[in-house]
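Dear colleagues,

For the upcoming journal club I promised to circulate an example of a predicted protein-ligand complex. I picked one with iron/sulfur cluster because it came up in last month's discussion. The inputs are reproduced below in full, followed by the predicted structure.
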Amino acid sequence: MLTVGIPRALSYYRYFPFFKTMLEGLGTKVVLSKPTGKRLVEDGVRYCVDDICVPVKLYYGHVLELKDIVDRLFLTRLVSVEKCDSDTYTCPKLIGLPDMIRSSIEGLPPIIEFVVDIQNRSIHSSARRLGEMLDTPPALTRKALSRAIDVQARYEGKLLGGLTPEDAMSAAFSGNGSSGGVRAGSGDGPAPGLNVALVGHEYLLHDHFISHNLPSRLSRLGSCVTYMTEVPPDVIEAELARYPEISWSYEKELLGSASYFLHREDIDGVMLVMCFACGPDSIVGEIIEREVRTESSPPLMTLVLDEHAGQAGVATRVEAFVDLIRRSRRKS
Ligand code: SF4
């Protein structure tokens, strides 16, 4: 059976249930790269240009991990991910990712490029193209697509219900209708007394190696974690009406959910997790700091991560933030 490698980075966190179900429905075997580790990061950094964000470096590392063990490599070109009246895009790196990979890594297996460009082409046409690349009959492609859409919808429902991507994927693949899985804050740590909202790209927050297990760390300190993936799209849209229009879809999600959390009374603190060398993040981070946060907002902390961020430094900052929240709660 033809093996197709999917890098466990970037679009994996948003669309893996769709991609896996689709590819398996087309008769291939999906091989997922291993979770990020030290060697993988070093490899990614070595092949990537210096001044690029760490999630793209990780993507390189995951591609290198797969390149000699699969028949085909599945790469995504995320151009636009929402249908709306104004022009919206992802970011230039996500749009040019397959070209960057092709031009800097030699000896790659044949590439299956999957384009997500919701503003200009339907997901059906991208799926049709995928079926043609794999020489599958149109009827089989249609069947695989219909199943992939269902599994993806289940996955997104689980994220909205508060699960992490890992737990939401398990539940979506098993067809489990219950909320299932474990939320940060429900583990072995002290009983959660604080509610901390985490705002940041899922490919950063949920890569345990690069985020230094941030959600579990907060959980161990007695915080229940609320993820931005729990904020429904219509709520984000309503929040965005207060701010200048921006065209990057993923940054809109950051801005809208940060605004929502910073105005909610049951949130004790908001942690904004950003990528070093990410232009869109730095602009939206400034808007959140200057325009969204008010005197009455809960404490806000910005944590910038890259491949050099040490575990001890992250731990100290997180502990200090949780202390600050506890102190500010005692005063109010
Ligand atoms: S949005 Fe930022 S972090 Fe994400 S890929 Fe683009 S530059 Fe990197």
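Two points we might discuss: The pocket of iron/sulfur cluster is lined by residues 53, 55-56, 91, 93-94, 201, 250, 275, 278, 280-281 (CB under 6 Å). Confidence is low (pLDDT under 50) at residues 178-182.

See you all on Thursday,
B. R.
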